[in-house]
Amino acid sequence: MDSSRQSFLVRNDFLIRRLHSLCGLIPVGAYMVVHLIVNASVINGAATFQNNVLNIHKLGALLPLVEWTFIFIPILFHAIFGFVIIAGGMPNTHNYPYAANYRYTLQRATGVIAFFFIMLHVFHMHGWIHNESWLHYVVEPLGGGQFRPYNATSTAGEALQNVVVVVLYAVGITACVYHLANGLWTMGITWGVWTSPRAQRRASYVCGAFGLLLMGVSAAALFGIRAAVDDPAKLRQVRAQEDLMIQTKIATGEVQENSHKVADPLPTEGDAPAAGGESETSAAAN
Ligand code: HEM
């Protein structure tokens, strides 16, 4: 039984490896780049980010199909065969240059970190699946499912206020970016694009520059979203702006009404903790 499974992997080694490699770039890597750029668009203001998120949600009922076909299934495929490769379940026919051994190890380590980070991130923002009981009894008590697409900046920003969460995201995103940038370089070897040591060295610089650029985009996304609502006044202002945008777009039929995509209203100012309320009142009186 086990040997037939083994022989399936061995027999189809070439095809599986090529699909695994291709999948890392298209659609997974391409999606990751677009996702980070859309998130970083928050540095242009909460309205820009909200508009970009709404453009994605205009797909309506098609969105889950598109997400599963072009994002979740390819990531799962790449991750499952990534773990098989790491576990040595497939012959290692790749001969990377000797000096690049540490990068070979880091590629595997960052793949594993990326897997756990992506699972955590999708749980934290979306709660994995949108089943009422699952969301109510499991996701919400564990602090997951915090993102609401119709209040994109305010809900994502609130979810990123905790310093531990920011550190986890910074580590996870750095691992993903390294994995993609170094993966581009190993892809060039897999597909025979750069074969001589000289060409591989040049490709290293290009992939390194791409990684640094994407790291900058990632930092803008993470810290931009967090900073957009890092005090109660900003949060209220952003939330009011988002609510107005959504009402307008629903009225014009640009987006569809959907209570699951809207955040719970913020507590009214009268509900604020007494100490904060007092100091604000006395500051105003002074
Ligand atoms: C952010 C999501 C991910 C992206 C964008 C991505 C992208 C890539 C790319 C472009 C490659 C290079 C393929 C090649 O060398 O031909 C690669 C390789 C690899 N990936 Fe991923 N990957 C992701 C997530 C994962 C996950 C979750 C795992 C699970 C452990 C994983 C495991 C691997 C492994 C083991 C390799 C090396 C394959 C080899 O050397 O033959 N990746 N990845």
UniProtKB/TrEMBL annotation:
UniProt-annotated stretches for the region Disordered: 255-286
SUPFAM superfamilies: Fumarate reductase respiratory complex transmembrane subunits
Comp. bias intervals (Low complexity): 272-286
InterPro entries assigned: SQR/QFR_C/D, Succ_DH_cyt_b558_Firmicute
Ranges that cross the membrane: 21-48, 68-88, 109-129, 159-181, 202-225
Keywords, alphabetical: Membrane, Transmembrane, Transmembrane helix
Keyword Membrane: yes
A GO cellular component annotation in the UniProt record: membrane
GO MF annotations, alphabetized: metal ion binding
Designated name of the protein: Succinate dehydrogenase cytochrome b558 subunit
Source lineage: Bacteria, Pseudomonadati, Planctomycetota, Planctomycetia, Pirellulales
